[in-house]
Amino acid sequence: MDKVQRLAIGSIFVGTAVFVLKYAAYYITGSIALFSDALESIINMVTAVAAFLAVRVSAAPADANHPYGHHKVEYFSAVLEGVLIIVAALAILREAYLGLMTPKIVDAPMEGLALNAIAGVINAAWSWTLIRRGRRLRSPALVADGRHLLTDVVTSAGVLVGLLLVPVTGWHWLDPALAAVVAVNILWSGWGLMKESIGGLMDEALPEATLARVREIIAKNAEGAIEAHDLRTRHAGRMTFIDFHLVVPGAMSVTEAHEICDRLERALKADVEDALITIHVEPDDKAKHAGIVVL
């Protein structure tokens, strides 16, 4: 089992522990805002399981039916997480509406808030771990899970501050109002996750800064060639796909052209982790006099 899968399993255990704490906080207080927090934790557990299954499938080697591997499955996990976040937000909005119609006094707030605060600290530490390690391991599923947890941390902090104000101000409507704010915030989070994942499924090119670096590496390491053109890039989970046409002198031997390609692949893989590179070699009469000029 690799590092990504171990982190995904860790998310399941952390999500379960946080849900128990948040549901206990809701059970003690009867707060709709804390109920919204607990409901989001259920979504966290479900998406943690989905993320684990996604990274497990993505780690499977390429086969006859999937010659480019299974890396894109992680994007489906992130899309699922976005959909579930939206469903949870709609459920919270319903509870918030009912609470606004009939506000009630929140019981024993300090005990419940203490439990919720502990859950928030656990979530904050784990979300930071997932985002940092997920980016290092190039796992969209882990980064999405971490970003979702980070949103949960922010909303939990807002709920805690708001509920502390309820006994001071006597505004009992503040509890369902906070739940509505939580719902709107996680709706925005869900949309962001889905938008980013759909971009991956649609084979978006690498960011412009990374593309510029790829062009620079090709220009500096293609000595002996004439030019490179038709550069195309895309992400698929942890993999980065790079392909381009390399124009060489027509009299160059296959062995010499292959040596240039090997040199380019080594340089690109040293800079772009988990890169899969395809180079199409062409004779000089195919030069377009555009694209990447060999230095």
TrEMBL record:
It is found in: Membrane. Keywords: Membrane, Transmembrane, Transmembrane helix, Transport. Its main location: membrane. SUPFAM superfamilies: Cation efflux protein cytoplasmic domain-like, Cation efflux protein transmembrane domain-like. The chain crosses the membrane at residues 7-29, 41-61, 73-93, 113-131, 152-171, 177-194. Residues 11-202 form the Cation efflux protein transmembrane domain. It comes from the Bacteria. The keyword Glycoprotein does not apply. The keyword Transport applies. It is a multi-pass membrane protein. It holds the Pfam family Cation_efflux. Residues 206-283 form the Cation efflux protein cytoplasmic domain. NCBIfam families: CDF. Belongs to the cation diffusion facilitator (CDF) transporter (TC 2.A.4) family. PANTHER family: MITOCHONDRIAL METAL TRANSPORTER 1-RELATED. This is Cation diffusion facilitator family transporter. The lineage of its organism: Bacteria, Pseudomonadati, Pseudomonadota, Alphaproteobacteria, Hyphomicrobiales.
